[in-house]
Amino acid sequence: MSEQGPTRGASERGLTRRRLLVGGLAGGALLLTGGSTALVGRARWPVLQGARQVMGTWAHIVLSHPQPQAQQAMEAAFAALEDVQRRMTRFSPDSEIGRVNATAGRMLPVSALTAEVVSTAVALARASDGRFDPGLGMPEAAWGFYDHRAPRHLPGGWARPAPAWRALRLERRDGVPHLGVADPSVQVDLGGIAKGYGVDRAIEVLRAAGVEHALVEAGGDLRALGPRPDGTPWRIGVRHPRRPGQVLAVLPLRDGAVATSGDYENFFVRDGERYAHLLDARSGRPARFHQSVSVIGPTAMLTDALATAACAAPPAEAQALLRRTAPGGWLAVDEVGRMVRG
Q1: What is the phi-psi region of residue 271: left when phi exceeds 0, alpha when psi lies from -120 to 50, beta otherwise?
Q2: Which of 11, 35, 186, 286 has the fewest CB atoms lying closer than 10 Å?
């Protein structure tokens, strides 16, 4: 999951990076996309749905719970997503990440929430040998993927003596977490992990409100709270990366998360070559190893980051990473369309 730039107009709402099809609500289907939500069929239980633009995409919540508590819980869950955005977006100079990026070399106080995400991001960068890198803000901006505008001239490589994530500094001072960047050529970008964290926060808000059956999805990062109200698993359909409208696979899910990274939403074509928004952290250029990678796991923060890392790694390296870190399973489609499940 990579955070998009400020949300664009209605004509561009389909530009989110991933789409998931959630099937099986009372025999119907709930289509979650970047721009619409539609329930097909008659539900056998009360179902409340909501959609809101947040974190540069559309977030969707579906839950089964008595009213008026259901509506109150949904509003609180959306508020949790918005809180993560306010703290961690790199597109606002007033966010915690925006302030850190504007003051390279200084350590600034940040919230416990932001510190948790940065700490997890650095740990995953280390575990993935840098394939997941929360310090790629500079090359991401140079390629124009944040505002969906192809650059006039293709950026060159981004040779660095050390991985960007190693420039991030996180420490506690008088019990307060502080974050800084030691290298002015590095900018923090939590787009590959913060949206998943926001989904997790929304799920925890729903759980605290007594909700037992819910789905939260934002830009393709999805987490289920409990099973469907009839006790069966939610059935999550993963979009085919090259055949719009076709489902590649259906994944059963209860009390877990799934995230998909792919090259099929935010990209441009130049001289017959496809350039997608997921960058190879080694070169600073768009990765060309996979069409999509889906990861199942306990939290959306984890699956978000792992899907991003695996999609930006050669297939053998990606599969080795996922075997170590994704015991819930995964589904990968490589550059030429070969599908591998683990």
Answers
A1: left
A2: 11
Q: Name the DSSP letter for residue 58.
A: E
Task: Return the biggest CA–CA distance within the chain.
Answer: 59
Question: Nearest CA to 222 among 273, 171, 147, 297?
Answer: 297
Distance CA 168, CA 120 (A): 12
Q: Which of 108-117, 216-225, 242-251, 266-275 has the lowest mean pLDDT?
A: 266-275
* Amino acid found at 191: G
Q: Are 287 and 267 contacting, i.e. CB atoms less than 8 angstroms apart?
A: no
Q: Decide if 29 contacts 78 (C-beta within 8 A).
A: no
- C-alpha Rg value of the chain to the nearest Å: 19
Rounded CA separation 323/256 (Å): 18
Token digits of residue 195: 């949206």
d(CA 131, CA 67): 45
In three-state secondary structure terms, 120 is helix
| Predicted confidence band of residue 6 (pLDDT cuts 50, 70, 90) | very low
Give the H or E element holding residue 25.
none
| HSE of 129, CA atoms in CB hemisphere, 13 A | 11
Asked if 300 and 77 touch (Cβ cutoff 8 Å), the reply is: no
In angstroms, the Cα distances linking 299 to 137, 139, 148, 277, 329 are 24, 28, 28, 23, 13
* The CA-based dihedral angle spanning residues 275, 163, 197, 252, taken in that order and rounded to the nearest 10 degrees: 60
Q: For 264-302, what is each residue's pLDDT tens digit?
A: 777 667 767 776 678 888 888 887 898 999 999 999 999
Q: What is the pTM of this model?
A: 0.87
**Token pair in block for residue 168:** 């991030």
Nearest by Cα to 241 from 270, 268, 263: 263
* Cα first-last separation, the chain: 20
Q: How far apart are CA 40 and CA 19, in angstroms?
A: 17
Quick one: residue 75, left, alpha or beta (phi over 0 = left, psi -120 to 50 = alpha)? Answer: alpha
